[in-house]
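PT: before anyone asks, these are the final sequences, not the draft ones from last week. 695 residues across everything. Please model them as a single complex and drop the result in this thread when it's through.
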Amino acid sequence: MTAVVAQESQLSLAGALNRALADALAADPTVLVFGEDVGALGGVFRVTDGLAARFGEQRVFDTPLAESGIVGTAIGMAMNGLRPVVEMQFDAFAYPAFEQITSHLAKLRNRTRGRVELPVVIRVPYGGGIGGVEHHCDSSEAYYTHTPGLRVVTPGTPDDAYRLLRDAIDSPDPVIFLEPKRRYWAKGPLSDERIGFDRAVVRRAGRDVTLIAYGPMVATALETAEAATEEGWDVEVVDLRSLAPFDDETVCASVVKTGRAVVVHEASGFGGYGAEVVARVTERCFHHLHAPVLRVTGFDIPYPPPKLEEHHLPSVDRILDAIGRLQWDDEVVGSCGA
Amino acid sequence: MARTRAPERTLLPSDEPLSLLRKDGTPVDDSPLSMPDDDVLVELHRRMVIGRRFDTQATALTKQGRLAVYPSSRGQEACEVGSVLALRPTDWLFPTYRDSVALVTRGVDPAETLTLLQGGWHLGYDPYEHRVGPQCTPLATNTLHAVGFAHAARLKGEDVAALVLLGDGATSEGDTHEALNFAGVWKAPVVFLVQNNGYAISVPMSKQNAAPSLAHKGVGYGVPSVLVDGNDVAAVHAVVREALESGGPTLIEALTYRIEAHTNADDATRYRTSDEVAAWLDRDPVDRLEAYLTSRGLLDHARRAAVAAEAEEFAASVRAKLNVDVEPSPEDLFEHVYATTPRHLREQAALLREELA
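LR: through. Structure below.
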């Protein structure tokens, strides 16, 4: 049974995250929230608004401005029985912590044969579309999903934001929690039904083609699906939610049904997360495919300045164009050099 | 009414390294440090002798192909043993790859200590059983783990301090800076013991550091700093004990020397002279304490022979434990990556099983 958590009928994605943090802090005294500016300021996106006042400086606190220090000390705290939830403030600011994340956070369970468990959540506001200047708009998911030992999740709706963050904090494994910052202010209803990790979800049912999206691109994919009806295409949208581990079952069930798929993400395409999705779909659903699986991604460039980002980010039109290239004639499939 | 106030511990290290024993084993008259009790000194001696024998044995095991590599800490016994024996049972140790002698001094089974170097798995011991963090190969990353661990203890109201070991090269890494800064701000009960053995593999201190000493680096973070003679086990033990009991952070630089190369795979003659090594052999930490204990009547021929025999026995047990072929199960590859093994790893494990069938 699904109970309504929020009294408000609608809550922003940032508000849903705030509520998840508050509920987790209230439910478990070992949960800590810390990072840069998360205390009195409530975070630059206000995701931690009011938490320090409510739970005190022992539970919610500002740290020195040092990302490796934040993650490295979180590892030590988790070794000592606490459950740190840390904020990286902006995607590209997490890179100084990369060694702590990949060499230690991801590996300590394995290195110690399960004796050391690190229930750490690293919240990373990621992606563009907010007019941010350089180093504020990276999509860094491929770095983390390539690292065994990490769970990587990203919500596309306020409801998922709440539930995935509660799951992430409960997780015995470290979780990279990617927050689509351009959707922080998108509103939606909340329920308290737990999703469970590793599960993708069909956001919109359709017959002709599967759009595979996550995080900031879920809304864009849904918008595209609506627009596609004018072309007579019935588009299904799958929201991955969990990037690692990957939910083959939900994705492949959809692609087997539709026979066509497009993967959409903001990050650069080359060596990107979409390549993995295409490979998995191709390996598992090859005989059901009527066309090659396409990708619509950001260009293979450093993230552009605000006045050019609209050209870089996948748009409804660009995704519609990809759908159009999926050859609706079932007889001809992806000819090579013809 | 006059208010009493605890004296602030000084941030600045002394100009000369603090010591209790001169290199010939005679006591320093005006040392600000307190000489450890006789029974502690006798135990420090015993553990250093055992530690050195262990180190020699491990080096020999590399020549027999039993260990892939071994980073010797010969010459650094005063740091390894003096600091570990200063720990209270509830305190934690965060060691590096060179600190195997510290581990066996803490009571970790020698075979478990050498598991990493043997290649059977990345770690052999249970950190919680011995209160010893995983040996760390990337430099300085363990400093932050120690700060976090100690801060968590403080938040939980536990009287637990952390001792983190690092080398001189590790002080050049950014994590050391961040760890000292966090420890200073949080006043975390952490002792940073820098074993300055003169070289980061082959790069000497002159190319590593421009500060008057590595201990001076604590000043900028508000962390009390101590410079100590790292070949004087009594002095190392005294400063580490005092630092652990201070309830806050301390940076200790211990001046010492690694007599052997960086590892058995390194050729130290390419970057240092035999005269330099000889000069440090003259400051040997074991000889120094033996001279003092002998002069005090705390060590005689019989006691010496008994400790040597115990060290031989220890080495024999290390040989016996390591003289077996380690054959980890290929299935171990997929264990403990996550709390619950996800489907894609179960599939890969099945594939490997098929290959092996």
